[in-house]
Structures are given as structure tokens and as C-alpha cells.
Design a protein that fits this description.
30% of the residues lie in helices and 26% in strands. The chain is globular. The protein has helices at 27-38, 104-130, 139-142; strands spanning 5-6, 23-24, 42-47, 52-55, 62-65, 69-74, 80-87, 133-137. The chain has 145 residues and is an alpha+beta fold. The protein has one domain: Trna Endonuclease, Chain: A, domain 1, CATH 3.40.1350. A hairpin with a 6-residue loop joins strand 4 and strand 5 (62-65).
């Protein structure tokens, strides 16, 4: 089941973007928004504000990828880092196992994995060029079972 809604930050000065249009597309994204909003080590954050161009392996054309989050965080050693964060289920982060029957569901999984891989490779390059780090967080990192 997909959950979608608007988020209103408790600390709006930390948010970099349109405060009236903070949309979460899953409860995991909402949980991460609450974490960013309430964590004093997160100095600023934004949702879907960064645009990364990528070439899709499906149609070989350029598209725009909007990673889920940008954060500026103060690390435990005092350094400040900027990160691009994508929230995804673990099952979408691993290549689908080859199946004998090529069902619609299997084909969808293969296509989504290929698109995600292209997006994430482009995001890693973009981050290297701009002095950011890129991370994909799954239910494991978010502490969700």
C-alpha cells in the first residue's frame, strides 16, 4: 500500500524549498522527514529539490531524476557534509533473479532496476562533481522491519 501526503516541518527554517509543497510518497519518506526536521545535526534539508540528468537505458534518452532528499549534516567529528539521499525498499536495490517465466511483474522489476541503476550512477557522478555524497537508504538503515 502506498502512502502519500503533505508534511509540515516543526522547524521550517531548516527546510530549503517550498514549505507549502513538501510531499512524501511513502511512510518511509515521512519517517525520514521527521528525522531530518527533529535532528539537531541536520542543519538543513530539502525534498526533491535537486535535479540530476540521466540517460535511461530503456529509451536511451535523457530524463530528469529528482532524488528524494538533500541534507546538510554535522557529523560526529564536527565536519559538515552535504548528501543526496534516496529512499527505496531493499528489494528494488538488488538485481532481480532471472526467472524462467517472463511475467509482466518480472519485466517491470527488471526495467525499474535498470532505471534505478542509471539514476543512481548519474547521482553519484553529480555528487562527485558538486562535493556531495550519495546514499540509498532501505528499510535496514531506517530501522523498519
Amino acid at each position: 500500500m502506498s502512502y502519500k501526503g503533505k508534511y509540515t516541518p516543526s522547524y521550517p527554517k531548516k527546510y530549503k524549498g517550498d514549505l507549502d509543497n513538501i510531499i512524501y510518497r511513502s511512510l518511509w519518506e515521512r519517517k525520514f522527514m521527521i528525522y531530518c526536521d527533529n535532528n539537531q545535526n541536520i542543519l538543513e534539508w530539502a525534498s526533491e529539490q535537486v535535479i540530476v540528468p540521466y540517460r535511461s537505458p530503456i529509451d536511451n534518452r535523457y530524463h530528469r531524476y529528482f532524488p528524494d532528499f538533500y541534507i546538510k549534516v554535522k557529523e560526529s567529528n564536527g565536519t559538515i557534509k552535504k548528501k543526496i539521499i534516496e529512499i527505496k525498499p531493499l528489494r528494488q536495490c538488488v538485481e532481480p533473479k532471472v526467472k524462467k517465466r517472463k511475467t509482466k511483474g518480472y519485466i517491470y522489476e527488471v526495467v525499474e532496476y535498470a532505471k534505478n541503476k542509471a539514476k543512481w550512477n548519474a547521482a553519484k557522478e553529480w555528487c562527485l562533481d558538486h562535493g556531495y555524497e550519495f546514499q540509498v537508504l532501505t528499510e535496514n538503515e531506517l530501522g523498519i522491519k
